[in-house]
Structures are given as C-alpha cells and as structure tokens.
Amino acid sequence: MGDPIRHVLFDADGVLQDLPGGWYAAMEPYLGDRAKDFLHETWSDELPMLAGRGDYLPVLAASLEKYGVSTPATEVYDAVWKNIVLIEESLGIVRTLKRNGYGVHLGTNQECYRGAHMREVLGYDDLFDVSCYSYDLGVAKPDPAFFTRAAERIGAEVDSILFIDDMAKNITGARTAGLHAEQWDFTQGHPTLHTLLTKHGITAA
C-alpha cells in the first residue's frame, strides 16, 4: 500500500462540462453535412495551440474561408467553442471533495481562448486549487509529460493524485507518469464516479 490519495485531478470536457448536442451539430448551421470533415481538419490544425504554440483564431478563420463560410471566425468561435454547459452534479462532487480536505485540480487540453473563457467566465479558477491547462503547461494530454508537469504544479507526488478523464488514451498517459487514473464520463452517471472514488479510498459524500 502506498500513501493515500490526497488530490483529484479532473478533466473538463465530458467530465465537468458538455457541448449541448455535440460538436458536429453545433457546426452544422455553418457547414451543413461538411461539419464533420471541417471539425476533424481544424482539430488537427489546433494541436500545436493546445501545447501553447500559435494563435488558433487566425487558423480557424483560414479554415472557414477555405470551406466558403463568410461568418467571422470570432462569431463562430463564440457560438461553438464557448457553448459550454456545466455538469452541476460533477461540480458538486468537486466542492464536496474540497470540503473534505482533498486538493481538487483541473487537467485539461485547451488552447488559450477557450481556456481563458473557462477560467474567467465559467469560474474554474475559483473552483479549483490548481488549474493545469495544456496551453499553459506547454504540453498536451496524453503525453505523460503533461501529468508530470501537473504534479509539479500541484506540488504533490504523482502517486498521491487520482486523475479522472473520459478518454482511454489520457488514462494511459496518466498511469505511465505514475498517477492513479480512472476513465469516466458524465453519461455513465455520478453513482459510478462515486464508486471509482471509493475504490481509491476517497470520500465524496
């Protein structure tokens, strides 16, 4: 038995927040049946920005122009990328863990504009003890270096941290770095999250 877990690091999308209807539906008003192709292309273009290299809005503008969309990039960005609904039951668990004396932290892949929206408008800076945004750390999940840097920023040993994320590749990256990690998304229901936390000796009630 190692030391007890004292910190929980949460992913954002799929765990704490959702895009209503999904990304494809959100882009359909602008691109119709080309929305899926566009998004997969722009997500690929966005990868350097997730690690803090470059400015995403000009990239998005160029992609929209390429697809013949005349709506300004900032308008599309605000309507789609900032269209975030908070999962209140997830946030309630975060608050309970905090009251119970655990460190609660955010570990998410974002470029700087969406990250700033989450920090300032959604209030994540006030909710979490430490926020680890990929653009700020200079490396994105699933790279194990993301988790090593996150642990350093938290100021904790890797094996005292439990990471919760909805993507298997990110769970693998976290475990490679030495963190405890469990895959979960809000569609599985919050009783399942409670079960996972209890498995690691964490009280969230």
UniProtKB/TrEMBL annotation:
Pfam families: Hydrolase
Molecular function in Gene Ontology: hydrolase activity
Keywords assigned by UniProt, alphabetized: Hydrolase
PANTHER family: ALPHA-D-GLUCOSE 1-PHOSPHATE PHOSPHATASE, FLAVIN MONONUCLEOTIDE HYDROLASE 1, CHLOROPLATIC
Protein name as catalogued: HAD family hydrolase
